[in-house]
Amino acid sequence: MKVVLHIGQHKTGTTALQNVLMGDRDRLLTNRILYPDSGHDRTPEGHVMANHNGFFYAFEGNTGPRVGGTLDEIASQFAQEVADTAPATVVISSEHAYIAADAQEKHDYLGKLDAMLPRSCEVEVVAYLRRPDHYVTSWDRQLTRMGMKGLRALNSEARLDHLLGTCRLDYERAIRLYADRYGSVRIFHYGQIGDTVAHFYREVLGLEPPAIEPGDTNPSLPS
């Protein structure tokens, strides 16, 4: 079995891809590809998100409604899904995985991930990266759209200094964590692929993308 771990980066069409993968789950299963129901993030109102950030929040020790239970419970749900569907490929998609290098030493994300995955599986890590200046601009517009101000907005010098100290802009450190662990990372330039959904389906999964609208794609404010 192969596990495709899609780690983002943020603002590279990740939400659109996750929405389509979730909506296409039945067709994927007919092709022996599992997009797990377990590990999804949840909003405070209980809405299930299409991403698998819940796995990584659970690796941090978070429990409860946002992640749908304890790490042991989520890992058990995931194992049951794999046993029930016997997939050739499992796709896990989490933007939170992209920033794991910032707290890997504290939380041991990859050790906990490996413990959750079947022992004999192959892990293929996929990342879409955006030009840093384009990424920062898009991220700032999203924060503005969400009403974030002060330290949480990038128009604050302190917030920008904080951003520069994380692996959000240190692409080598973000990717090196996975390359060292799994041998390699497939990296695609977001600015050159055109459509993340179509590209991921064709280049990573070897399938034609479905005729599914991605829904709320987490847009930034226009320039």
Quick structural overview:
The chain is of the alpha/beta class and 223 residues long. It has 11 helices and 5 strands, in the order βααβααβααβαααβαα. The protein has a 5-stranded parallel β-sheet, with helices on both faces.
Largest sheet: spatial strand order: 2-3-1-4-5
The biggest sheet, with number of strands, parallel, antiparallel or mixed sense and barrel status, is: 5 strands, parallel
Helix/sheet category: alpha/beta
Distance between the termini: 43 Å
Number of DSSP E strands: 5
Mean pLDDT: 90
Q: Which radius of gyration do the C-alpha atoms yield?
A: 17 Å
**Estimated share of beta-strand residues:** 5-15%
Principal-axis shape: globular
Overview of the structural elements:
This protein is 44% helix and 11% strand. The chain contains 11 helices and 5 strands. The protein has helices spanning 14-23, 25-30, 53-59, 71-85, 104-107, 109-116, 132-145, 157-164, 171-182, 190-193, 196-205; strands at 2-6, 33-34, 89-93, 122-129, 185-189. It has a 5-stranded parallel β-sheet with strand order 2-3-1-4-5, with helices on both faces.
Question: How would the blueprint of this fold be written?
Answer:
Blueprint (H helix, E strand, L loop, with lengths): L1 E5 L7 H10 L1 H6 L2 E2 L18 H7 L11 H15 L3 E5 L10 H4 L1 H8 L5 E8 L2 H14 L11 H8 L6 H12 L2 E5 H4 L2 H10 L18
Parallel strand pairs: 1-3, 1-4, 2-3, 4-5
